[in-house]
Structures are given as C-alpha cells and as structure tokens.
UniProtKB/TrEMBL annotation:
Mode of membrane association: Single-pass membrane protein
Listed GO CC annotations: endoplasmic reticulum membrane; plasma membrane
Comp. bias intervals (Basic and acidic residues): 46-71
Designated name of the protein: Uncharacterized protein
InterPro entries the UniProt entry points to: PPI1-4 (IPR055282)
Domain of life of the native organism: Eukaryota
Keyword Transmembrane recorded: yes
Disordered: annotated segments: 21-71
Entry keyword annotation includes Endoplasmic reticulum: yes
Compartments reported by the entry: Cell membrane; Endoplasmic reticulum membrane
Keyword vocabulary terms for this entry: Cell membrane, Coiled coil, Endoplasmic reticulum, Membrane, Transmembrane, Transmembrane helix
Similarity field: Belongs to the plant Proton pump-interactor protein family.
Amino acid sequence: MVPAEAERAYDKLVRKVVNQKNQTAKTKKPMKPATEAVSAPVSGRGEIEVTEEKQHQQTKKEEELTRKVEELRSEEEAAMLKEQSLLEERANVKEALERKQGTAEKANFSECCHLFMIQP
C-alpha cells in the first residue's frame, strides 16, 4: 500500500505536467525557420573569413614590430656614427693642438737661439 500523502504528491506532479503540456500546445505559434533567425553563417565560409581576418591582424602586428625594430636599429646606428664622428673630431683637435705647441716650441727655441746668437 502507498501512503495517502505520496499519492497526493504524485497526482499533483501528474496534473502539473499535463497542464504544462497543454499550455505549450496552446501557445505554440508558427516559428520562422532557424536559418533566418541565426545571424552566424551556416557554411564554413564565415569561419574562413574570421581566420583570414585574424591572420591579417597578426601580419599587421608583425609588420609593425618589424618596422619598430628597423627604426630602433637605424637610430642606434645613427647614434654610433655620431659618437664615432665626435671621437674623430676630438682626435683631430688634439693633433692640431700638439702641432701648434710643437711649432710654438720650435719658434721659441729659434728665438732664444737668435737672442743668444746660437745656431739651432
């Protein structure tokens, strides 16, 4: 024997399910085909387009990175050339000062010799 409370609960569930089925049957309206409602393409073409777009974005990023690397390289090379030019200029100035000092010393020596009437 089944207790009376279990029978009542079972009856309530059965009624509930029957009511839900009846309501669903009454409210069903003709629906549009699923292909029209779906915004995503049905064929694999859309997936290919998305993949191509991603690849295009990746190539753009790669090109930008390559451009930046080249730009940094050229800036670094320009800095090195500038530094080398400055070093060469300093060396030339130093050599010119040494020549000038040497010439001044020779002139000084010759002048001293002349004053003392010594042959240089």
